[in-house]
Each structure stands twice: as C-alpha cells, then as structure tokens.
C-alpha cells in the first residue's frame, strides 16, 4: 500500500496531457503543492501541473535546476532512453505507436501472418493432443 | 480615338510617392521630346485628321415589335475549372471503392479523365473490376503505390465509356416479348482486348510484391474496433 514512486528532483515522468503528450521529462524543481518545474533535452524548461505527469520508475542524479548541458549528461549517464525502451511500459507504448501507424496493406499482411501463426499453433496442439490420448 | 498600343509605354516620370511625380510639367515636356517633334513639324504639333469613315449601312426599321418587354437573363461567362485531384491520388495508387457494385474492392488508379472522373482497373483477372470510371469522392486513397510505367492509357477518354444508342425499331406488341429475350448485351471483343492489354504489365508488377495480389483480391470492410478517423490508409 505505501507509495513506491516519489516526486523528487531527478524523477523521470511521462507527460499524459497537452502539447507535449507522450514525452519523457525530468522533474528539476517543485514549485508548490501542485506544480513542478520540468525539463527535457528537446524542450524549453517550464512548469507543469502534477496532474499532467505520470511518474516512472527511473530517476537520475542531478542538482536542483541543472543547466541543460548537465541535464543531458546526467540522462546519458543513467541511460534513461534505453532503460525506458526496454521496460515493459515503454515497450507497450512503442507497440501502440507502431500499430497506429499501420497502412491498410500492412494491416492485411498482419492479418495473414496472424492466421498463419494460429494455424501452426493449432497443428502443434493437435499433435500433442493425439500423443496424449493414444 | 488613336490606335491602342500593344505594349503600355514605360513612364519617364518615376513616383516619389503615389500621386506625386519626380518631374514637373515643364521638365516632362522636355524629357518626352515634344520640342523635337514640334521642331520637325515646323513649330506646330502634328495632327492627323480623322480618317473618312465608311458610311454606316441604313438600318431598316424592324418588321416585328414584341407585345411585352421580356427581360433577357444575364449573360453567364463562367467556365468551370477541371476537378482538382487530391494530392494523395497519383497514377499507380491503390484506391478503395466506397460505393456501387464494387463497394469495398481495392483497385488500381490509372489516370484522371478530362471530365474529372478517375480511370480505374481491378485488374480484372484479380478482382473482377474492369476498366471503369469512378468519382474521386467515392474513393479512399491508400498510401500503397504500384509501378505503372509499362501501361499505356492514352487511348482511354470519356467518349470510350459512353453508352451505345439503341435503335428503336418495333412498336408492335407481338414483337415485344421476342425483343426482350435478346436484351442481354455482349461486351464487344475490342473492349476485352483493351482490358487484357492494360492488365498484362500491371499484373507483372503486382506479382513482384509479396501478398499484393491477395490484397487486391480481398475486399475492405470495417471490423469491430476500427475507428475510421484514426486509421492510417
């Protein structure tokens, strides 16, 4: 029941509303009870309400409100990008994006592949059933 | 009136601002060389008497005056522009037909005809859609493109697709029932040949891409969970 992910300086969060939807940002300072100062390598540092952020498991080691260069170095050292892309949450988001960008032809090829895979699985299952029953 | 010049004369008096020229009237007189023209003509500006006009033919009073003044409708000189083709539709694009007998079929776009309609073919062997005209509005353009370089579509235009006018011959009732039996029209052989010629090179380029033939043979339909406004075509 206790909280596991805390708002702290260096906490990496995912933006879930607004212009920067889907971006990973780092909390670099806390403004007040509801807002944080937030920064990312490709955006201008600015304030965001906590309601717009979803905390992740990743933290990095930075002083309060670091310079952009320091921030980028710290993110490289903690390997935020790779950690995110290998986490199950990050992988799910990548798959969602890929599915949304599928062409009509791609969807057709996907359907054929699914049917083929299901056919192979069913064949194996039938084989196993036969072995077990005999 | 003096004859109009074909090219408007460039003015020698540049504008300082709109309405105010750089040079005064006397300066402009000098710049235009009016003094030289006058000197050549003995101190007087040359003038040409109006050319004798041919006598206008005597107009006869009209034989008939209409009883009421009927208003003539205003002249309409508007020329409709050719239909703008959507940027996503280029020769070789796979289109999805949305209405009509071939609803849902995926079809290859060949060219836009002069009437604005799109010329489209199945190819016939793959999905049964012949060379056909279709309106842009009843079509979804996918981003799948097929190589169409081997195909010659120059001979197809709107006249190719007009219906043949049937000659009316019999009006007798007895002959009515006989005529109905031979109502089914057969497709002329040259149209079949045209279809085969267009489809030959198309089918070759289609078979070069894996699964494309099956894709064109299948129909499109919306399944559960598919949101058209979120789909990428």
- Give the strand order of the largest sheet of chain B, numbering strands 1, 2, ... along the chain: 6-5-4-3-7
The chain pair forming the largest interface, with residue counts per chain, is:
A-B, 9 and 16 residues
**Uncertain stretches of 5 or more adjacent residues of chain B:** none
What composes the largest sheet of chain B? 5 strands, antiparallel
Give the overall silhouette of chain B: elongated
How many beta-strand segments of chain B?
A: 7
Based on the structure, what is the oligomeric state of the protein chains?
Answer: heterodimer
Rounded to the nearest angstrom, the distance between the terminal CA atoms of chain A is 51 Å
Rough outline of chain A: elongated
The residue fraction in helices of chain B comes out at 10-25%
Work out the radius of gyration of chain B: 34 Å
Beta-strand residue percentage of chain A:
15-25%
Structural class of chain A: alpha+beta
Report what the structure shows.
The complex is a heterodimer of chains A (about 130) and B (about 230). Chain A has about 130 residues and is of the alpha+beta class. Chain A is built from four helices and five strands; from the N terminus they run βββββαααα. In chain A, a hairpin with a 2-residue loop joins strand 3 (about 35-40) and strand 4. The longest helix of chain A is centred in the last third of the chain and has 30 residues, at about 105-135. Chain A is elongated. The longest helix of chain B is centred in the C-terminal third of the chain and has 20 residues, at about 190-210.
């Amino acid at each position: 029941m206790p909280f596991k992910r805390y708002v702290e300086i260096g906490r990496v969060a995912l933006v879930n509303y607004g212009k920067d939807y889907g971006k990973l940002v780092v909390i670099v300072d806390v403004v007040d009870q509801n807002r944080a100062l937030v920064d990312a390598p490709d955006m201008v540092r600015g304030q965001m309400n906590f309601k717009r952020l979803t905390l992740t498991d990743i933290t990095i080691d930075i002083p309060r409100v670091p310079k952009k260069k320091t921030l980028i170095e710290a993110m490289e050292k903690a390997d935020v990008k790779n950690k995110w892309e290998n986490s199950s949450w990050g992988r799910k988001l990548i798959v969602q994006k890929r599915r949304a960008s599928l062409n009509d032809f791609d969807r057709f090829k996907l359907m054929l592949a699914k049917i083929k895979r299901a056919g192979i699985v069913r064949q194996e299952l039938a084989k196993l059933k036969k072995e077990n029953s005999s | 009136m003096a004859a109009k010049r074909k090219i408007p004369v460039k003015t020698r008096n540049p504008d300082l601002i709109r309405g105010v020229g750089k040079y005064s009237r006397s300066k402009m007189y000098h710049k235009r060389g009016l003094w030289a023209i006058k000197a050549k003509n003995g101190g007087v500006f040359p003038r040409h008497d109006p050319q004798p006009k041919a006598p206008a033919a005597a107009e006869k009073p009209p034989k008939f005056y209409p009883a009421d003044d009927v208003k003539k409708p205003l002249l309409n000189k508007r020329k409709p522009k050719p239909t703008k083709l959507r940027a996503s539709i280029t020769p070789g694009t796979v289109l999805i037909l949305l209405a009509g007998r071939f609803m849902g079929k995926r079809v290859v776009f060949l060219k836009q005809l002069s009437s604005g309609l799109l010329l489209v073919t199945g190819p016939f062997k793959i999905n049964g859609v012949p060379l056909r005209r279709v309106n842009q509005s009843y079509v979804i353009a996918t981003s799948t493109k097929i190589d169409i370089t081997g195909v010659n579509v120059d001979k197809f235009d709107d006249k190719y697709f007009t219906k043949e006018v049937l000659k009316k011959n019999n009006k007798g009732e007895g002959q009515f029932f006989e005529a109905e039996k031979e109502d089914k029209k057969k497709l002329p052989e040259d149209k079949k040949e045209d279809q085969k010629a267009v489809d030959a090179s198309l089918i070759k380029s289609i078979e070069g891409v894996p699964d494309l033939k099956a894709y064109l043979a299948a129909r499109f339909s919306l399944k559960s969970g598919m949101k058209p406004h979120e789909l990428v075509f």
